Amino acid sequence: MKLDNINTIHFIGIAGVGMSAIAQYLAANNKTITGSDRYFSPSEQNETLEKLKAEGIKCFLQDGSGIDEKTQLIVISTAIEPTNVEIIKATEMQIPIIKRAELLSIILSEKKGIAIGGTSGKSTTTAMLFDILDYAGLSPSIISGAGLVRLQEKGKIGNAFVGKGDMLIVEADESDGSIVNYHPAIGVLLNIDKDHKEIAELETIFQIFKDNSQQFIVNAAHPLAAPFSQNNDFDFSSTDTKAGYNATDFHQEGLEISFSINNIPFQLTAIGKHNMENALAATCVANQLGIDLATCSKALAAYKGIYRRNQVLGRKEGVWVIDDYAHNPAKVAAAIQGVQPLADKVIAWFQPHGYGPTRFLRNDFVEAILSVIRPEDEIYMSEIFYAGGTAIKDISAKDLIKDIKKKHPFAFFVEDRNDLLENIRPHLKENAVLLLMGARDPSLADYAKMVFESI
Is 433 part of any domain? Predict the structure, then answer.
């Protein structure tokens, strides 16, 4: 499919972060974009809706009213079921329907595409690489899974931007297998950890991703990613493992980290070794695109972060409050470990999402949390976020807490998150971090702000 002759496109589920990014990208490229979402309601204000409208996108209730004889293409995410009223209407009108990933692969093929893949760190690495290329004057475009703070400061959702150059950086998602659709000029593999799929299935998916990429760059320090190397000189490492780009001398001081890449010093506002690895990956790619390491360092010194990734809400009564999108075992462990240097005590709260994923990763969550939590740290969980559908509710976050409590006494289940602050208030003390983690639930950002304001 070519997009040249398609001018009017309708997105079903446009408020989703992946869908809204592509919708904005196409709107900025002079396509007529409409969209609907089940979260849109005439009686409730919706920030995403307002920002989409500001980009010239017409938004509708998910009742078919946004689809008419002018609609040439329907785009859906994997979350849209065949029984959706708009799917039925589009089918009756014989309007072509494609998935989000298929559309993104078409867009990527029309640019010099750089696809960032891996279980963790994709959004951050994508944002960092965009910042470097933009700082260097290459005017790149981006389609990401999270809003860049510096774009949000301009009133945008922040997960898409159209530059004047020929480079497009995208976050390539393995969770639904859609990464196999992309044929980028450069593919990047950050890591492989059990998440939505078993390791063997992920390895098969990433092998296809490698085969589809003209150049492939991997994290040589990650034991499961390293075997996918195309050329070790392309790769990066934060350990003694041989690679073309090595990060050394990591140090964290408060909310800043410093390190060196091939003996060039870097310093940026971020926390945790995982963010050093993300910066290393972005720098590795940028340098191979012709940007010198000193310029990469200057660009990342101004990096402002992305939405709900180690997002510092502030400090009150001696307590740092940090909001994070962490939702799989590796990310939850990295988020906890990343904030530990900030304070003597971490109080971590996690809201798992989805009964299937929580059941699949139960033991992995327990092991990951126990591997990083210190004796004085505390872990709280509230009940699993349910987004609807036909999920079997045969597991509870309480089950994970019971498992953790067998080896760590400070593990607590607070079924209703609205009761969290009441439960943790006696445990908050000077020089502590309150880390709030969770994904998929669109109310989490507002919840985190409410907790911070109520301390």
Answer: yes
